Amino acid sequence: MNYNIFLIGPMGVGKSTIGRHLADILHQDFLDSDNEIEIRTGATIPLIFEYEGEIGFRKREQEIIIDVTNLKNIILSTGGGVVLNPVNRRLLKNRGYVIYLHADVDDLLERTANNDNRPLLKTGNPRTKLEALLKQRHHLYTEVADVTINTGKKNILEVVEAVLNHIGEL
């Protein structure tokens, strides 16, 4: 395979986990945009949010997307809000095959419940926040995506198999 695969979707949907498995199977490099931000800044995502707010974080995210989408033969897991930026949406759409991993709010809540690295869920009601984020972003995910795959109650291997079926590697 000689093209990029970009995984988009809300936090907790499994982008990083699925991306690592795909990279192993397809012998491609795996990158996680949030991890790349942390490596370049030397700071955690929550710390960046604390000091720079979401606006500062989104600026850093755009810089990463510009750089990493220029690479070849990669699997990229993106942050949940990457689609908020029109530049990011254009770059993802034009530089690779975009897969929207989707799950309902109950599944996302279950998967993010014990993760302290989710600054947007540091709220009294994470369910309400996730519902609002999905309402705001779902149409942007579908606009950018070449395919949508529901990760819902599927295990990792079932999702990986669904992705491989869509990209014609099985």
State the separation between the terminal residues, measured CA to CA: 12 Å
Strand order of the largest sheet: 2-3-1-4-5
Order of helices and strands: EHEHHEHEHHEH
**What is the class in the CATH system?**
Alpha Beta
Mean pLDDT: 88
Oligomer: single chain
Number of domains: 1
Main sheet specs: 5 strands, parallel
Number of helices: 7
Q: Which geometry do the CA atoms define?
A: globular
Provide the CATH superfamily: P-loop containing nucleotide triphosphate hydrolases
Give unreliable regions as ranges.
Answer: none
- The fraction of residues in strands falls at 5-15%
Radius of gyration: 15 Å
Find the CATH topology.
Rossmann fold
Describe this protein's structure.
The protein has one domain: 3-Layer(aba) Sandwich (Rossmann fold), CATH 3.40.50.300. With 170 residues, the protein is α/β, with parallel strands linked by helices. 55% of the residues lie in helices and 13% in strands. Helix 1 (15-26) crosses helix 7. The model has no long low-confidence stretch (mean pLDDT 88). It is globular and about 40 Å long. The protein has helices at residues 15-26, 33-41, 45-68, 86-95, 105-112, 126-144, 156-167, and strands spanning 5-8, 29-32, 74-77, 97-102, 147-150. The chain has a 5-stranded parallel sheet with strand order 2-3-1-4-5, sandwiched between helices.
Question: How would you concisely characterize the structure shown here?
Answer:
The protein is of the alpha/beta class.
